[in-house]
Amino acid sequence: MLAGWWAGAGPAFAQDGEASPPTASPASAALPRYRLPVGERLGFHGRWFGIPVGSGWIEVKEVVELEGRQAYHIELQGHTNNVLSKVYPIHDVIHSYVDVETLRPLRFEKDQREGHYRAQEVVTFDHAKRTATYRSLLNGSVKDIPLPEDFQDLLSAFYWFRAQPLPSEGGTLPLLLYSDEKLFEVRVIVRPPASLELLHRGTFQCTEVEPSAGFKGVLIKRARLWAYMTADPARLPLLVKALTPWGAMSAVIDEWSLASDPAIPPPPPP
């Protein structure tokens, strides 16, 4: 949920989410004028029916060199607390390396531990050849997946969305998303800003985004999910709410995440 809150993935998935064939999306073009807030770390607490169940964070850690390119290193972690871990432990760590100039993903790493399920993978994206190379670190399998010109992975999509000029009266943004060796055609449903009050945090003008489909282990299929982001250039994700087959879930931003100034430059004008 913390990994995929952004998905602003509206109800436009073809055939249960998988697009066939994927086509380039005009709104997923590179945005070289936007710079990610290196050092920004956004923390969240998760709840299930109002009961604390875990926490996580997403962080732009640093800029590194990868295959001759400058890349933002983004890390996301999500963990259940001690109580839920006795029943169903979740310990997920995901890394994305995003090209500084184009905001396109170059490399994706996932170490997923949920209950008895395990997944460890590394995906490298060759934009020149338009191919993703998937490698499982558990069984050694290798697979090549054809790619369109423009797409995002689960983490880079969050920052891609924050960089987009949004319609003031609401609307949609198209996006192609890579996840679990597949490409998904997504429409980001954006609703007009409205007031949101968070306990102990204050009242904020927020833009609402609603996903409608899911990805294995990150978003839940047939769930409904709403994300609320500040209606300012920072576009901080304050709250995520979901209705799932397992009941109501939510993730709310930590107070200390609101105390720092991410110094995100505004997106280019429409």
Which descriptors would you attach to this protein?
270 residues; mainly beta; 14-stranded antiparallel sheet; 3 helices; 14 strands; disordered C terminus
Question: Can you put this structure into words, describing what you see?
Answer:
The protein is mainly beta. Helix content is 6%, strand content 49%. The protein is built from three helices and 14 strands. It has helices at residues 82-85, 156-163, 255-259, and strands at 41-48, 51-66, 69-80, 90-99, 105-114, 117-126, 131-136, 142-146, 171-179, 182-198, 202-209, 224-230, 237-244, 247-253. The protein has a 14-stranded antiparallel beta sheet. The longest helix has 8 residues, at 156-163. The chain is globular, with a radius of gyration of 18 Å. It starts with 40 loop residues before the first strand and ends in an 11-residue tail after the last helix.
- End-to-end distance: 30 Å
- Identify the quaternary structure here: single chain
Sketch the topology as an H/E string, one letter per element. Answer: EEEHEEEEEHEEEEEEH
How large is the count of helical segments? 3
Number of strands: 14
The geometry reads as globular
Give the fraction of residues assigned to helices: under 10%
Beta percentage is over 45%
Structural class: mainly beta
Largest sheet: 14 strands, antiparallel
Unreliable runs, pLDDT <50, ≥5 residues?
1-32, 214-220, 262-270
What is the domain tally?
1
Secondary-structure map:
Blueprint: E1 41-48, E2 51-66, E3 69-80, H1 82-85, E4 90-99, E5 105-114, E6 117-126, E7 131-136, E8 142-146, H2 156-163, E9 171-179, E10 182-198, E11 202-209, E12 224-230, E13 237-244, E14 247-253, H3 255-259
Antiparallel strand pairs: 1-2, 1-14, 2-3, 3-4, 4-5, 5-6, 6-7, 7-8, 9-10, 10-11, 11-12, 12-13, 13-14
